Automatic annotation (TrEMBL):
Catalysis: reaction(s): UDP-alpha-D-glucose + 2 NAD(+) + H2O = UDP-alpha-D-glucuronate + 2 NADH + 3 H(+)
UDP-glucose/GDP-mannose dehydrogenase C-terminal domain mapped to chain residues: 322-423
Enzyme active site: 268 (nucleophile)
Taxonomic lineage of the native organism: Bacteria, Bacillati, Actinomycetota, Thermoleophilia, Solirubrobacterales
Source organism of this protein record: uncultured Solirubrobacteraceae bacterium
InterPro entries on file: 6-PGluconate_DH-like_C_sf (IPR008927), NAD(P)-bd_dom_sf (IPR036291), UDP-Glc/GDP-Man (IPR017476), UDP-Glc/GDP-Man_DH_C (IPR014027), UDP-Glc/GDP-Man_DH_C_sf (IPR036220), UDP-Glc/GDP-Man_DH_dimer (IPR014026), UDP-Glc/GDP-Man_DH_N (IPR001732), UDPglc_DH_bac (IPR028357)
The family this protein is said to belong to: Belongs to the UDP-glucose/GDP-mannose dehydrogenase family.
Binding site for substrate: 151-154, 212, 257-261, 265, 329
Name used for this protein in its record: UDP-glucose 6-dehydrogenase
Domain of life the protein comes from: Bacteria
Keywords from the named record: NAD, Oxidoreductase
Length: 439
């Protein structure tokens, strides 16, 4: 890192934007963070971190003097030539990505031949082409465009920034692509002048856009695949944990994303799988496999209801069920498209009363869930419960005192929706354990 690092702008200070901004500040860049949410910017200016992400508050704290927060995009444009876009691209009713936030940012770009937009948001293939066409129509051809999709995982986002598997840069082989590679250089392998682990994939814009969608769709496919294997295991007496272990040792398969459970959720997989399916459909191709991946995932969430019926006498009417975990995965407060939302709605529709506990996602969950009892602890949640269902595999649930749980519950059923608990410890406490795909 001999040459001075250039100031950059980051538009959108959510999970991706704030982590990226803090990461680049840690590398030595001045970072101008822009968001339209004035309340969020005020909180950030006051040193408050609006999301839960391990290590993020510390990293922002360490780099406060290099991180500048504003609602005015002009502040970023004046200082920086690279403007990273990290605004949300949620699904629309049609399943396509909603690009209104991206388009709003694009609309504020001035005619300039010294600036570039660097797209971190996950967008359909062709978005870069469309934005460049729009710039051309508006006599802004000097404005450069780079696709630099983000692969961080909530819960380990800081580590993912610092130690990326790969950095994908899609561009028109111009100064902007070079500048983005320079920014990431310390995180890249020695082959690319860095001392990090990140392989560099420098490619065209459309291919970079597709890498992101294809990677998420593949991971989701792996999850739906192992969930179907788990369901067959239940019918045939095999144990999916043993099966996944045996499969994962084949290095063509690998052990990751072979954990059977109650289906994937979150702000990325469901929307990106659907987005790729729609993108294919809009271009005239029926992506049959992804239709199955989505359907399997929806059915998988509902299988828990069948398990509860089996253990609770064929009905949930009047039954009390405790949900352990609400966030779509551990170590985040993100509730977007969380499996817990579907489970709670199904349980309530079937007549059950539901108590819930999550160590960090309660505030986010309260915005989305009605009619449940928010408990102050896991033990509080299971008081009087006929059944407990583990939905998010937070560490503290694995360490629960199962004798205390058994004493607090009025029933004995424990459904381990993530195959994360020690089945023997649960059973030793006199409880009935059922996982996903276990013999
Ligand atoms: N969250 C993840 O794990 C993850 C991982 C990889 C990629 N992505 C992708 O990154 C993008 C951002 O995701 P996120 O989870 O960080 O979203 P987020 O909702 O947490 O953050 C988006 C931020 O953008 C702000 N914003 C919206 N419109 C704006 C505008 N016109 N100008 C300035 N700010 C604006 C919002 O106020 C919000 O703070 C999405 O496309 C997502 O698919 C997310």
């Amino acid at each position: 890192m001999s040459s001075p690092r250039e100031p950059i702008g980051v538009v959108g200070t959510g999970y991706v934007g704030l982590v990226s901004a803090a990461g680049f500040a840690e590398l030595g860049n001045e970072v101008h963070c822009i968001d339209i949410d004035a309340g969020k910017i005020e909180r950030l200016k006051a040193g408050e971190i609006p999301i839960y992400e391990p290590g993020l508050a510390e990293m922002v704290g360490r780099n406060r003097e290099r991180m500048h927060f504003s609602t005015d995009i002009g502040d970023a444009l004046r200082s920086a030539r690279l403007l990273f876009v990290a605004v949300g691209t949620p699904p629309t009713y049609s399943g396509d990505a909603d690009l209104s936030a991206v388009n709003a940012v694009v609309g504020t770009m001035p005619a300039s031949d010294r600036h570039a937009l660097v797209m971190k948001s996950t967008v359909p293939v062709g978005t870069g082409r469309d934005i460049k066409r729009l710039f051309a129509e508006q006599d802004k051809t000097g404005f450069r465009y780079v696709s630099c999709p983000e692969f961080l995982k909530e819960g380990s986002a800081i580590d993912d920034f610092i130690r990326p598997d790969r950095v994908v840069v899609g561009d028109d082989s111009d100064w902007a692509g070079d500048a983005v590679v320079d920014l990431y250089r310390p995180l890249l392998t020695a082959e690319h002048g860095g001392d990090g682990p990140g392989a560099l994939v420098r490619t065209d814009i459309a291919s970079a856009e597709m890498v992101k969608l294809a990677a998420n769709a593949f991971l989701a496919t792996k999850i739906s695949f192992i969930n179907e294997i788990a369901n067959v295991c239940e019918e045939t007496g095999a144990d999916v944990i043993e099966v996944a272990r045996g499969m994962g040792l084949d290095d063509r398969i690998g052990p990751k994303f072979l954990q059977a459970g109650v289906g994937f959720g979150g702000s990325c997989f469901p929307k990106d799988v659907m987005g790729l399916k729609q993108l294919a459909g809009n271009s005239g191709y029926h992506f049959q496999l992804l239709s199955a991946v989505i359907e399997v995932n929806e059915l998988q969430k509902r299988r828990v209801i069948g398990k509860l019926h089996k253990h609770l006498g064929g009905t949930l009417v009047g039954r009390r069920i405790a949900l352990l975990g609400l966030a779509f995965k551990p170590d985040t407060d993100d509730m977007r498209d969380a499996t817990s939302l579907v489970l709670i709605a199904r349980m309530q529709a079937a007549g059950a009363t539901v108590s819930v506990y999550d160590p960090v996602a309660e505030d986010e969950a309260r915005k989305l869930i009605r009619g449940v009892r928010f408990a102050g602890s896991a033990l509080d949640a299971v008081v009087g419960a006929d059944a407990a269902v583990l939905v998010t595999e937070w560490r503290e649930f694995k360490d629960l005192d199962w004798s205390a749980v058994a004493a607090a519950m009025s029933g004995t059923t424990v459904i381990d929706g993530r195959n994360a608990l020690d089945a023997d410890a649960v059973k030793a406490a006199g409880l009935t354990y059922e996982g996903i795909g276990r013999s």
